[in-house]
Design goal:
The protein is an alpha/beta fold. The protein contains nine helices and eleven strands. Strands 3, 4, 5, 6, 9, 10 and 11 form a seven-stranded mixed beta sheet that branches. The protein is elongated.
């Protein structure tokens, strides 16, 4: 078994962790605010000190070697220890501090999280909150985000999963669109209409295959963004499925077949298992879940 001749310092491990999570010198350098050449030199120095290769350059970027995988486990423990130390010394009882990043599907990110996070920020003026609104899954293991809001619980990974709340979706159209067409009384009567929905090959979870619930495979107007779909509907371009909590933000849009069709889905909060000892994250998770639950209920009552 190889013995490393020196003990790593945290600054070196921070560079190592960032490259391991980003697979690219340029992306790691951007996150660390270092130029890529400096990141490369720091890694080379680390490898020389250890007498072992930690990365191998592959067609997809920098991949960890076996020794790199072993170091990764220790580096992540060191990161957690530094976070715990920072918490202990920063007076967290006086309020949340630092930066927290949330990854979320753009339905939640556009119509729920801004209000919820604004309230949390007002109560914690030293807290910086980032919302990454993307219609895809986030890698918490690579620290793309501290928290992720998901529409289905993952089946793999070292994650803590907490159900946030249920929410509903409905068929909807602009009042101006409905006024130009005959009344719709059955789901079957939707077929001749211009349908708005997700780009089929960009559906990232079966939970968002809403049109499949009404037997429609390919919408005529498609986007990977819920917000784009909602604005198309508001402009009277066609009929689609919207979150009920988005309706208060879409004046002039009404449900279609409200007594015949409604979908029930759920939001889940995902966290990396290693973060369960971080009181800062625990307190933020509690505020976020409670805030989202109340905000969805409030918006659905208005819709």
């Amino acid at each position: 078994m190889q013995r490393w001749p020196v003990q790593p310092n945290w600054d070196d491990l921070r560079v190592f962790l960032t490259l391991a999570r980003n697979d690219s010198l340029s992306r790691a350098g951007k996150q660390l605010r270092l130029d890529p050449a400096t990141v490369g030199r720091r890694i080379a120095r680390l490898e020389t000190s250890y007498g072992a290769s930690l990365f191998v350059k592959s067609p997809t970027g920098y991949a960890l070697t076996e020794m790199g995988e072993r170091l990764l486990q220790h580096a992540e423990r060191a990161e957690q220890s530094m976070q715990l130390a920072e918490e202990a010394m920063s007076g967290q009882e006086e309020g949340l501090r630092g930066q927290i990043r949330i990854g979320a599907p753009d339905g939640a990110a556009n119509f729920v999280l801004p209000q919820v996070c604004a309230e949390i920020a007002r109560a914690n003026p030293d807290l910086e909150i980032q919302i990454v609104a993307l219609p895809r899954l986030f890698s918490l293991s690579k620290r793309e985000a501290d928290f992720a809001v998901a529409v289905s619980p993952p089946q793999t990974g070292r994650l803590m999963v907490q159900k946030i709340t249920d929410y509903r979706l409905s068929i909807a159209a602009a009042d101006s669109y409905l006024a130009r067409h005959d009344p719709i009384t059955t789901v079957e009567q939707l077929r001749p209409h211009r349908i708005i929905g997700y780009i089929p090959d960009m559906i990232y979870s079966k939970e968002v295959d809403y049109l499949g619930e009404i037997g429609i495979e390919a919408p005529q107007l498609a986007s990977n963004s819920v917000s784009v779909q909602a604005h198309w509907i508001r402009q009277g371009a066609g009929i689609g499925i919207v979150h009920d909590f988005s309706l208060p933000a879409l004046p002039g849009v009404s449900r279609v077949l409200p007594k015949r069709f409604s979908l029930l889905r759920s939001f889940y909060l995902l966290r990396h298992e290693d973060d369960k000892r971080l009181e800062r994250h625990n307190r933020f998770a509690a505020a976020l879940t409670e805030g989202m639950r109340k905000e969805v209920q409030r918006l659905e009552a208005l819709s």
